[in-house]
Amino acid sequence: MDDQLALPVGTTLDRFIMRKQEEFPYATGELSQLLRDIALAAKIVNREINRAGLLGITGNYGQQNVQGEEQQKLDVIANIRFIRALRNGGEVCTIISEEDDHVIQTGNTEGKYIVAMDPLDGSSNIDVNVAIGTIFSVYRRTSDASGDGTLEDCLQSGARQVAAGYIIYGSSTMLVYTTGCGVNGFTYEPSLGEFFLSHPMIMTPSEGKIYSCNEGNLNSFPEGIKAYLDYCKEQNYTSRYIGSLVGDFHRNLLKGGVYIYPATAKAPNGKLRLVYECNALAMIIEQAGGMATDGTERILTKTPTELHQRSPLVIGSPEMVEKVHTFLAEKVLTA
Length: 335
Ligand SMILES: O=P(O)(O)OC[C@H]1O[C@](O)(COP(=O)(O)O)[C@@H](O)[C@@H]1O
Fold this sequence. Notes:
CATH superfamily of the largest domain: Fructose-1,6-Bisphosphatase, subunit A, domain 1
Bound molecules: 1,6-di-O-phosphono-beta-D-fructofuranose
Domain Fructose-1-6-bisphosphatase class I N-terminal: 12-200
Mean pLDDT: 94
Number of strands: 15
Keywords: Carbohydrate metabolism, Cytoplasm, Hydrolase, Magnesium, Metal-binding
Cofactor: Mg(2+)
GO biological process, one term: gluconeogenesis
Distance between the termini: 42 Å
GO cellular component, one term: cytosol
CATH class of the largest domain: Alpha Beta
Strand content: 15-25%
CATH architecture of the largest domain: 2-Layer Sandwich
Number of helices: 8
């Protein structure tokens, strides 16, 4: 964790990015510009979300995405806005999006970066005014920087991320990200159109009392997860699950807790997507002193073979994730 440059709360995102770049003498400024492009798209999407009910942009878009999920109008709008900002910025050659079957070549053939994103996470909550989010991962391309990004560029393990983050559109809008030197959170001030540093160097508590999972799927959970949930109830832990990964993750990051989306009968590989949901949050939680696994393997060491592949996810306070592992291992042994 770099503590050389602890910038004060209230520092603008732009200034923070610039000052952090100065710590890397060989930095070219391209990643900094990419982060600014993401912040710009976040401001635009935030505005659309806030006005959605007035502009008639709530509800279904009338088509399904590659996951077979009904696309919401705001899913499509957020996707367009982030793609446009990244394309216009010029730093990104290829984008992977939850809303697109195939990779998106931006035409920035000199662009050094790949972005994987879930433009709007928590789709089931969009129309009911519950926190939703955007999740993003940034990779440096491994192919020559003269042409479109390759599939190999897009299927790198999470450990190769150069930056990762999310935007939460909740009671306030925040951008939380890491470039591998700690996790910082910025709160959006709409009247000034600026993100300001509000949560410097976030560390998650090693232990917590909150567990988050959809117990509606309990009957098809692995025995180890069922046993862990019983343990949580014996410990009088609190159950909190809003059904938006970003919202549940953000709460648990700050307060301490564990989010679990295991393999189920309905989703034998879990529901969440490794490349643009799990990897980014795994980098954030590890930078904040927490853990992220699929129940056994560290998320960041998994090398994806498909763009939209799913993975079980256990993420949060390290002692709680370890406890889940203990119960999973025990049940495997006694099965
Ligand atoms: O309704 P379920 O099965 O509990 O799933 C909820 C989970 O699925 C998600 O909605 C998946 O994300 P999308 O909304 O982007 O498809 C997560 O945000 C959330 O944690």
